Amino acid sequence: MTRRVALVTGGSRGIGRACAMRLARDGFDVAINYHQASEVAEQVARAVGALGREAVCLGADVADAGAVDRMVSEVVRAWGRVDVLVTNAGTSAVRAVEELDTDEWDRVLDVNLRGTFLCAQRVIPVMKTQGSGRIIMMSSQAGLSGGVFIGVHYAVSKAGVICLAKSLAKQLAPFGIRVNTVAPGIVETDMVASYPPDRLAALVASVPLGRIGTAEDVAEAVGFLASPASDYITGATLHVNGGLYMP
After folding, report:
1. Could you tell me if residue 244 is inside a domain?
2. Whole-structure pTM over 0.85, yes or no?
3. pLDDT in tens, 188-227
4. Is 246 within a domain?
């Protein structure tokens, strides 16, 4: 069998970790990108190895074009291909619009949107040479609804990710490259853990399925989009929110 390779940005914890593990279980060797948490990334790599797959850890700020170039080059140098890219790296803060300064606005847009663009742009030539590939971009319910509590900069960045995916899906379909997004709702992550307890309880109470989501719930959607079962899907957004938002 041909080796299958996945690159997961922000893969050291939370949703990224769950995606790396799901793809490893599905037979992918996994490149785990991290920004600062090298020891945590190594733990994920060991867990991938325990499943019988190979893993490498790659430190890079996805908003840095040079760092992304080096990261993708290292994956290709190690394994010769990139079959799946999951652009999961992201950042945010709960902040009222009046409190936002331009530095924080720029940083959130740089990581969440610019970083997604840079990673996709750098793997596209590799996937074109292969004649196939899947790019799975992590958006958010906030990118569709405008958000309930999260900062406006985060919502705007995630809306941009959805538009980026649709545009790339049209351009890349002739090359056998599918581009889709996953839009989680309220999920057990470090970001959600920062919400005030009373506000979080109210949000969870509004979910029709009656519970907060897990990182594994989101990873299941990513696994589907990375699999042959989604061969006829591109430019789509898969909602993983327990019914909280129904477009």
Report:
1. no
2. yes
3. 887 777 777 888 888 889 999 999 999 999 999 999 999 9
4. no
